[in-house]
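Supplementary Methods, section 5.1.

A reviewer requested that the exact input to the structure prediction be made available. We therefore reproduce it here, unchanged from the version used in the analyses.
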Amino acid sequence: MAKSAKSLFSGAGGGCAASGRREWAQIYSIYGSDEWQSVLFLLLQSFLSGAASLLLLLFSGDVLLRSRSLLPSLPPAVLRSSVALLGSSLLLLSVCLLAAAAGLLHSSSALRREVSQRMVASVPDWSSVRTALDVRCGRGLLLSSIARQLKKQGARGRVVGLLPSRAAALSALRRAAADGVHEYVTCREGHARSLPFPDAHFDVVASAASLGDEAGRGLGEMVRVLRPGGVGVVWDLRRRGVPDLAHRLREMRMDEVRVSERLAACLAASHIVSFRKPLSESAATAADWRTNIY
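The structure derived from this sequence is encoded cell-by-cell as follows.
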C-alpha cells in the first residue's frame, strides 16, 4: 500500500498535504481560538482543576485550620462542608473539561465528514465534471469524497489535491487507495494565494480549509481557475467569514451565491458557501475578480 501510494504521488508530480494543525486550524470553540488551542486549553484547565482538588484533599486539615482563623464565626461543620463541596466541585469541573476536550475532538471529525458530504452535494451535476480541485486538501477527506462521487457517476474526471507541504501527502493518497478511488486522485504542491494552474482549468473548485487572511486573494484565484459555468464550494468557520465571503463573491459578480444552513457539532459552528462562475464573462466581470488577485 505504501509503495502504491508513493507511486501515485510521484505520478502526480507534486505534493498534497497538510499537518494536523493546519487541517484543524479553523474550528472555533467558545473560547474564540483555534481548535487545537481550545483542546489544549481545556486539557490544561482540567489538569489544574484536578490538581487543585487533589491538593485540597491532601491538605484539607491545614485548609480547615486556616479557614477557622479567617472565619472564626462559622461553625466547624459548615467549614468542613464548604471545603468538601469545593473539592468535589473542582473534581467535577476537571472531569467536565476533560469530557469537553474529548467531545470537541470527536465532533470535529464528525463535522468534517458531514461537511464533505454536503460540499459534494452542493454541486448539482457531477456527470459533466472532468476536473476538480481541492484547495488545501488536508489528509484527503474531501478529496476522497469528490473522487467517490466521480467514480459513482462513471466519470473519467480527476480531482487534484493542493497544499504547500508534502508531509501528509502519502496519508491522503493512502486514504484514496483505501477508498478504492486512487485512480481519480492526483496531488500537487501550491498555495491558495497563487494556484499553479491556468485560467478556466477546473469544472469544480472546493476548499474545506479556511482561506483566513488570504480570503480575497484565495477567492480570486479560485474564480480564476474555474471554468465559466463551473461551481465553487467553500467551507468557512471564521466568525465573520461567511458574510465576508458572500459579499466578496457578489462583488466579483458570481452567480447563485448561496450560504448553507448552520452546521454545528459540539463547540463548533460553520456554513458552506457555494457559487457559480458566469457562463458569459464580460471584461467588467473579469476585472471584478482579478482585483482580488495581487
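Residues 1-34 have pLDDT under 50 and may be disordered. These observations are discussed further in the main text.
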